[in-house]
Amino acid sequence: MNPISLSAADFSWLPILPMAVVAIGAIVVLLAGVHVDDSDSDGLGWLAIATLFLALLLTFGIFGQTGFTFAGAIAMDSFTAYFDVVVLLATMMTVLMSIDYAGRNRMPGAEYYSLIMFSALGMMMMAGAGDLIVIFIGLETMSIAVYVLAGMARRDPKSNEAAIKYFLLGAFSTGFLLYGIALIYGATGTIKIGPLAAAIASGSMNSNALLLPGVGLLLIGFGFKVAAVPFHMWAPDVYEGAPTPVTAFMAVGVKLAAFAGLLRVFLIALGPAAVHWSLVVAVIAALTMTVGNLLAVVQSGIKRMLAYSAIAHAGYLLVGVAAGAGSGGAILYYLLAYSVANLGAFGVVLAIERTGEIGSGKISGLRGLSSRSPMLAAAMTVFMLSLTGVPPLAGFAGKFYLFNAALNQGYTGLVIIGVLNSAVSAYYYFSVLVAMYMQEGGAEESEVRRARPALAAAIGIAALATIAIGMFPQSYIASAENAFHSAAITETQRAVSLAQ
Amino acid sequence: MVSAVAAFFGGLAIISALGVIVQRNPVHSLLSLIVTLISIAALFIAEDATVVGLLQIIVYAGAIMVLFLFVIWLLNLQAEAQLSGHLALKLGGSIAASAFAAEMYAILARPHLLSQFTAEPPGFGSIDSLAPKLFTDYLVAFEAASILLLVAVVGAVAMARRLPSAGERKPSGEEQAS
Amino acid sequence: MIPLHYMMSLSAIIFAIGVAGVIIRRNILVMFMSIELMINAVNLAFIALGSRLGSIDGQVIVFFVMTVAAAEAAIGLGIIISVFRNRETVHADDLTLLRW
Amino acid sequence: MVNFSALALIPLFPAFGAVFNLFFGDRLGRRVVNIVGPGVMFAAFAVAAWAFVRLAAMQPGSALVAHLWTWIVAGGFNANVGFRVDALSAVMILIVTGVGALIHVYSVGYMAHDEDFARFFTYLNLFAAAMLILVLADNLLLMFVGWEGVGLCSYLLIGFWYTNPQNSYAGRKAFIVNRIGDAGFLLGTFTIVAALASHGVWTLDFQALRANADLIGSAAATAAALLLFLGATGKSAQIPLYVWLPDAMAGPTPVSALIHAATMVTAGVYMIARLNFLFLMAPSALALVATIGALTALFAATIALVQSDIKKVLAYSTVSQLGYMFLGVGSGAFASGIFHLMTHAFFKGLLFLCAGSVIHALSGEQDMNKMGGLRTKVPITFWTMMVATLAIAAIPPFSGYFSKDLILESAYESGHTGLWLIGVITAGMTSFYMFRLIFLTFFGTSRVEPEREHHLHESPPVMTIPLIILAILAFVGGWRTHGFEQFLAPVVGEFKPAVEANALGLSAIASASGLVGIALAYLFYIQRPELPDALARGMSDLYDLLLNKWYVDELYDAIVTKPLFWGSDNLLNRLADRFVIDGAVNGAGLTVESVGEVARRAETGNVQHYALAYLIGAIGVAAYYLYLVTH
Amino acid sequence: MSSNVLSVLIFLPLVGAGLMLMLRSERATWNAAFLFSLIPLAVSFWVYSQFNPSNGNYQFVESHEWIPSMGISYHIGLDGISLFLVLLTTILISLALLYSGGGDITERPREFCFFMLMLESGLLGALLAVDVFLFYVFWEVMLIPMYFLIGIWGHGRKVYAAIKFVLFTMVGSLLMLVAILYLVYSARVHFDRLSFDLPLLYGVPFTRTEARWLFAAFALAFAIKVPMWPLHTWLPDAHTEAPTAGSVILAGVMLKMGAYGFIRFAIPLFPEVAIEAAPLFMTLAIIGIIFGALVAMIQPDLKRLVAYSSVSHLGFVMLGIFAFNPQGVEGALYQMLNHGVSTGGLFLLVGMLYLRRHTREISEFGGLWHRVPVYASIFMVVMLSSIGLPGLNGFVGEFLIMLGAFLKTGYWTAFAVAGVILGALYMLWAYERVMFGPITKAVNETIRDLTPREVAVMVPVIGLMILMGFFPRTILGTMEPSIDLTFQRVRTMQARLESHHSSPQLAALLPASQRVEMEPRTGATAQ
């Protein structure tokens, strides 16, 4: 019987300190919340924010590193750090939005905030995963928490329905994802990212008959998480039914994490096999953009509209994925731009939502907002324009960067589809502006409350970030580019060192 | 050559799996599922995955399925009504699933799926071979899995615990629903 | 030893049966059971591949998958109960409040 | 070439008057306007006379120039704002300022009761300025400025009494028809520029053009000449663009006298004379000019025969006389055209002013059927008009005799015998309708409506004095035929007869024709007043045709105007723009929406449908990989 | 020259826009907005005074790194092509603000001024950008304030008009974005340098197919903006429903951006394709001229009429640009200024009428001259400028354009000349129906003449018309070096193409001058 040789693994804790902090924080929030009344959970929210902020600070320690810890299970590179930062920020924003909302809607505060944090933990795991199984478990941690969060407004049948739909389809798609992992594992004998890439690149993998369907199934599984057509159909229903802060979290956090995983798996691990999947991804991207935008056009509910818009944006991002590793940095930057604008937009939706009503917000509900709360309307304008891709906002810089990258890889047709879709998207994003600025509010809308301070702060931060990231993108682009390269380099180094 | 064990449990797994999806009564479905799980556990063991096979029987076929059973009873579920009205879906689903099966079969059912096999090291599938992996390569996954279970517990509690009834205001969304 | 393609085919068939179950059974609980079928089919593939590769990783992964399945079961059943409380149905086609 | 900056003052005086009257006219009142309006014209006349005297004192063929500033430079192309007085423009500025000044004075009386006198003088002054730019311009482009400027003023003045929509319509018609001609002018200009530019010469300056004329080439010259002549037919009311002039009589009578008789309408003749070198390079174009001129002369005369509106008769007579001028220049005798232009300015201006005086006396009545016997009531008007009529009827020794005679002689001598014949016949018709006018208006019994009879009076001196001056000019204006020709020769060249002719014989024939006309008029309207009606009944078709001006207006309306409007509205606006283009645009939007509407139905809310869709996607992906694996 | 006056010019209005939001009182807002708009106006004139007219290159250049990793820089400069458009912009914005404060805009004045000033920034930025990315940014930025101006302060189907405007423009500009990206990519491949700098991009060689597609993308974006027939249908809607100030800026400056784009980007970037496509574009331009005029003629709505007249006028501009010769291009650029002044003026006048009667139906008016002589007189002058009466500004542009077109295409220009006739027709007819005749509607009896403020708005307009009509040489002369520089490649290429194959059929149509046109202009200007 061999003694377990722990020394073989490199257990350096610093890199996973942020995750640890989030995990411990979640548990602390949970425990602290035991005696807190559901309607009085604001304190838990602030506690969560404090913890997350601490984690955020610790994250900066990871930037610039290249290497692995925990026997290669966790990659400590700028990619991880980049996603950790964005995810943590998105989570903090979500919590900011939730403060007061959760209490007002009598959500179980302890569970609510801790689940958000657990979910964030899952996301961070996905971002920092060094092998497929960590990605998988991270994905499940995130998803399971989000399933529950979607159903958090338990009295609301829509919320219930959202939870069950999300759960069923999520578990369904987990099957496909796992199947894909299984076949890839079978084909290459490894589930570690870098070695996977090396195995594929060296052509030593055992069989295409395993690798190729594995790639396909992985694509299907990730396609679900990023809500790519035709695996997207859960998204509108779930976005609509989930409590609005949770929707924001799903639209941003889940998508971030899903893309983090997708990038690690496809652009890095399966990068050498790009020729086998880029066409499929391109087709899916085209479909996703088109369907997302077409359906967004006909929506009257604002959350549903934003859901389809999120689908469409996944489509744009997939254009970058299709284009391959050259657009990795662009995807990262786009995700950042997309995240801030979307968080803000959901924040505004939240601000005009009446207590106890989930998912009923219509675009027409924004009528006359510009005269009732001009700042809110202005912020929403910034978000909508950014999502449309109007310069000089973040969304534009993102699209520009992304399409540029795709074009440089020769995906001209896809880029043209993308820009035409952008034009279509202007139609529905601008319809929000129409409602806010060009139509008078109905009497029944007059009870819209003033945005709460925390929420207002969240919206304000998002708006400023949207402008700043768009106008001065250089440092963000640089760090996004750097993050992606660092992941690629780290994994390559590992593969090389393992081969020796 | 297909060994008798494999043929038997494989066939049983397929038949019972079909049972899961054609039985009208959820309890029957569940029982079929348990048979499937056990058949698969047997195949695990046949493939030198003894520990996992046993876990499959204990944890999966045992604990998890009991959980299902409780829920069925808790919700007092009856057999599904007739097929009427969902024929298209059932037909479409069956055809699509068959097509998918056919595709996967066409891809995977080839003799040289792997160009070469690596011999199993001695003690393959034993607890001794599993444990070091769990605490080295998979330590993070292991810890994460524990957190995952915690999340599941928290989530399940959050979902399933009774709603506080006192002073409850009926949200307007519910009115719309009804 | 059982031929690999046999195991893979078996796994594919069971997986497809699970998939079919999700689509054709309107009882959410049974749908969930079908998902369990899918996961088990995948586990089968892991085990079979792992043993052919002489790699223990496959079994470790199955171990984790089972954990995940357990967690999913807990959550899923919790959600089902919650839905049932609100809607008094476990039929997928009754849950169409959110659409279009 | 002598620099003479004071030339700039000639158009500047009236321009100043226009600006002054525009801004201060209403405020300072009638008295000031009555001084400033004609005053600036006299000032301009003075400068013009000064320039004329200086020029006359110089060598033949010399010129006074004033370069003001460089106007347009683009690439090689350049055009100046510069003025030039040579023999031709000297004559023109004298006519414009002289006759113009008289008509301004006359207007003081004529407009004495009109509220809008300030605006009237603004326009009138502005017109004079534009006309002076036209004749003074040293290049084709600046000439075009005046060319369009006079058109504008014509538009404004025709529609001066704007409350009557008919007047505004007439004004617009004038402007548009003129613009059609202007389009020709522009294209002609372009042709010249392009032709010269191909030789590296970029100019529109008349002197430079003349110097480089042989570079233009005969094809380009013909094209340019034809196009420019199209411009001339618009401005000078020749077939086919004459239609605006009769309608233009809607304006106040002094306007008709100044613009639509004496000055503006002759711009075409002036332009051709100015570009004589170009037209001489294009004999076919020149022949066309002569032909059109003759035909117009005849055609307009036929219409004038039966018109009952006193101004309409004069209007068609103007068209007809302009035809003579074109016949003259078209025959290559440019001086003859200009000569007739001058005498015509005197007698036709006078005729209009007299008609105005009559109308004034009759408080606005223009229908000759409601006149008669005015000889004694308005003696000065009668006598001066008689002089003018004799002049236009080409009775020696009145001015018209000399000029018309010169034209007919030139036409004959240039070989256009047929055109000469037309000219002779027209001369007869001219004296017929003119004396018809005289007889109907001043002779016979009064048919004046009683309430107008009451106010009947001779016009005030401010109106009659210009009449008398013009009458003198109309009488003596033609006496220095040869001197005039010689004076102009350095600019327009000398006429070279192609055919020998007996000048005296030709003259006799023409005069005889005129006398026959008078005799017939006497027969019809004095001796046998019932004859015209009988004739009209007897040849009612012809009569109607003439009365309705050959239905040309109706024809244009039917083949141009109506289809244009109908097509614009129905084909372009409704069909092309709204239906096809906008339909495509909105259709695209609608397609997006309806596709969306259909597609959203796929989101049934049933999670199993979603799973099915998912599975179908999975099948698609798997199919691709199946293909990859098996191939 | 390392001054940052241009940056000041671009961002001053933005500062002003921010300032607007802090003001409380309406009156103060209007005054502040107008006064503030005078600052960029003054700056732009100062720049003009410092501008070296004999230098065709960019002046006052300013260049900073912006997004170095993508080769994007904040690179701005001013040359003879943009100079006057900049002046036009600053002038028109001031006038529009002055006018709007006089009662035209009563709701939400702060936002109105905010958007107007923001618009000014966008317009100036687009005109001054040398970096293509920067140009695109400003190009899109100006869309947004205009969208709001139409959508909030417009009339009738304002929302439809606004969104139509945005979507039309966006479809084109997004495809242009793709083309820009491709262009830059090719430049990187060719020069091994990643840069969005326009002068650098001029030199990128392309295959014929590539160049055709790229040109098509650029041309589409610009043609929509111009708008060229048949992409014009957004324009009547947008113009008609926009508030007066919006229409003024839209017609006055924004449409010019399309033509500017052709001059600055589409043609010099792809000279070969431009030459190849010139017949098509000239044909479209001529169709636009005639079509716009004819449709304008029968419009019952005065503002719509002016809008369609823009289609016609911009047809002239395009005609001139695609003539490629100095006459055509300078005429086109000049006509852009003219159109800004005259159509801007017309929109102001129609706005004033609308303010008084709340209708723009021509049939609602008639005989106004008697009641509003000052208004009518000003209208007359502006109208005459619009129809190109010699002596006013419009003529100079139209003449040069037609001359340029004639030098290139010969008698095809006759169609354009016909447009001049029709221009007079619709304008005079409309004028006649509004101003002349008897007063048929009782409400028109009490209509009041212009206020001093309105007169103050119109006086600079009239002044410009006369000034630009009399003394165009300074402006043309300042433009010329820059235009020569920009069109250099087009002209040499055209000369080369023509020397290779001059088809006999074409030669029959064209005057011989064309060939000479390509040689250096040494030709004697015989005086």
Brief synopsis:
With 500 residues, chain A is an all-alpha fold.
Tell me the radius of gyration of chain C: 17 Å
Could you tell me how far the N terminus lies from the C terminus of chain D, measured between alpha carbons in angstroms? 93 Å
Order of helices and strands of chain D: EHHEEHHHHHHHHHHHHHHHHHHHHHHHHH
Low-confidence sequence ranges of chain C: none
Percent helix of chain D: over 70%
Q: Give the mean pLDDT of chain D.
A: 86
Name the pair of protein chains with the most residues at their interface, and give those residue counts: B-C, 88 and 76 residues
Multimeric state of these chains?
A: heteropentamer
Main beta-sheet strand count, sense and barrel state of chain D? 3 strands, mixed
Structural class of chain D: mainly alpha
Number of E strands of chain C = 0
The CATH architecture term of chain C is Orthogonal Bundle
What's the count of strands of chain D? Answer: 3
What's the rounded overall pLDDT mean of chain C?
A: 88
Strand content of chain D: under 5%
Report the portion of residues of chain C in β strands. Answer: under 5%
CATH class of chain C: Mainly Alpha
The CATH topology of chain C corresponds to Helix Hairpins
Largest sheet of chain C: none
Tell me the layout of helices and strands.
The complex is a heteropentamer of chains A (500), B (178), C (100), D (631) and E (527).
Chain A lengths: L16 H16 L9 H18 L8 E2 L4 E2 L2 H21 L2 H4 L4 H20 L3 H19 L6 H32 L4 H10 L5 H18 L8 H8 L2 H26 L4 H24 L4 H22 L4 H24 L17 H4 L1 H15 L5 H15 L3 H27 L14 H19 L2 H26 L1
Helix pairs in contact in A: 1-2, 1-5, 2-3, 2-5, 3-5, 3-11, 3-14, 3-19, 3-20, 5-6, 5-11, 6-7, 6-11, 7-9, 7-10, 8-11, 8-20, 9-11, 10-11, 10-13, 11-13, 11-14, 12-13, 12-18, 13-14, 13-17, 13-18, 14-16, 14-17, 14-19, 14-20, 16-18, 16-19, 17-18, 17-19
Chain B lengths: L3 H19 L3 H21 L3 H26 L11 H22 L18 H9 L3 H22 L11 H6 L1
Helix pairs in contact in B: 1-2, 2-3
Chain D lengths: L1 E2 L5 H20 L1 H28 L6 E11 L2 E9 L1 H24 L6 H20 L3 H19 L6 H33 L8 H6 L1 H4 L1 H18 L8 H4 L5 H10 L4 H8 L1 H5 L2 H22 L5 H21 L3 H28 L17 H14 L6 H15 L3 H26 L7 H6 L5 H16 L4 H12 L10 H25 L3 H8 L1 H8 L4 H49 L6 H24 L1
Parallel strand pairs in D: 1-2
Antiparallel strand pairs in D: 2-3
Helix pairs in contact in D: 1-2, 1-4, 2-3, 2-4, 3-4, 3-11, 3-16, 3-21, 4-5, 5-6, 5-11, 6-9, 9-12, 9-14, 11-16, 12-16, 14-15, 14-19, 15-16, 15-18, 15-19, 16-17, 16-18, 16-21, 16-22, 17-19, 17-21, 18-19, 18-23, 19-23, 24-25
